[in-house]
Amino acid sequence: MAMAKTRYIWMDGKFVEWEDARIHIMSHVIHYGTGVFEGLRCYDTPNGSVIFRLKEHTDRLFNSAKIYRMEIPYTRDEINNVTVELIKKNCLKAAYVRPIAYRGYAELGVNPFPCPVSVTVATLQWGKYLGDEALENGVDVMISSWNRMAPNTLPAMAKCCANYMNSQLIKMEAMLYGFAEGIALDNTGYVSEGSGENLFAIRDGIIYTPPLHASILPGITRHTVMSIARDMGFEVVQEKLNREFLYLADEVFFTGSAAEITPIRSVDKITVGQGKAGPMTKKLQKKFFDIIEGRAPDKYNWLTRVE
Ligand SMILES: Cc1ncc(COP(=O)(O)O)c(C=O)c1O
Fold first, then answer.
1. Segment holding 191, helix H or strand E
2. 186, 198, 255, 283: which sits with the fewest CB atoms below 10 Å from its CB?
3. Pocket lined around ligand 1, Cβ cut-off 6 Å
4. Nearest alpha-carbon partner for 229 in 161, 174, 280
5. 210 and 190 in contact (C-beta within 8 Å)?
6. Distance CA 246, CA 213 (A)
7. b/e map 202-240, b = 16+ CB within 10 Å
8. Which domains does the chain possess?
């Protein structure tokens, strides 16, 4: 997927042209992965553009920074306002938004403290993450030979740049084996998550998802789906899941800001349920897009309007 660039990037307090958004090669982040970031979407709807769960994404950015003892030199409100401004300045109706806080350069040692924290917000035009047909027809996935980070190694609750080296191992393996995505197990052998998505499985009408202690990122789409599912009267259980639970599930799907709600039609070449988007997945997808596109009330205040 080529990067469709947009005109401006907000960098350390200024809107700069795309080509001018540069950092020095000796920045700490380049050498040691010293950064935390977010990924969120702005949707073009009949009622104007809306950013989905901006506040929660900014909160998670600050939480990731807190874990890594990084002081972000802006307030949450400033980051939120800048995001809205940037979308407007770039004349975008729909966008993928990428805020990132990272350490620049001062010293090259591992100790990050001398290196200043920079913040950048960029916007991209980005289509469907797992392919145009994925939302409709589902994707084929494999269980990765790579595990997610063990507890007390790299914190899974932080959306930190370095964690995505693990994600890349999972993703590369899956793609080279002909799958759209890989699902990693945690270090105890239970299901964790995809390289960039959380996971849900449905069996006998009950919705299951791995808990935070299965080395998952606390996904905002995961939280969204749990909320709307409970609202619709479904039971949602956070529980460690065996690999074979996915084979025997009636429905399995990914959630993520990039992947939205993507059905999984097979795992390790074993067909899941009917091998297409199942009825509960479809109901959840419908409710999700009804809220985003303004057909259902925004009762949780999830949408930020870009006037
Ligand atoms: C590893 C990982 N898990 C889960 C998710 C889904 O999180 P969210 O729904 O907040 O985008 C992402 C995407 O940010 C991710 O990178």
1. strand 191-194
2. 283
3. 39, 167, 193, 196-198, 217, 219-222, 255-257
4. 280
5. yes
6. 19
7. bbeeebbbbeeebbbbebbbbebbbebbeeeebebebeb
8. 8-124 (3.30.470.10), 134-292 (3.20.10.10)
Which of 14, 93, 159, 282 is flagged as catalytic?
A: 159
In the chain, % helix, strand, coil (3-state, to 5) comes to 30, 30, 40
Taking the CA atoms of residue 160, residue 79, residue 298 and residue 131 in that order, the dihedral angle to the nearest 10 degrees is -50
Pairwise CA distance, residues 250 & 278, whole Å: 7
Q: Which atom of ligand 1 is nearest to the CA of 223?
A: 9
Per-residue pLDDT tens over the stretch 140-171:
999 999 999 999 999 999 999 999 999 999 99
d(CA 5, CA 19): 10
pLDDT score for 125: 87
Question: What DSSP string runs through 193-211?
Answer: EESS-EEEEEETTEEEE--
Q: Supply 192's token pair.
A: 């964790």
Name beta bridge partners: 43: 50
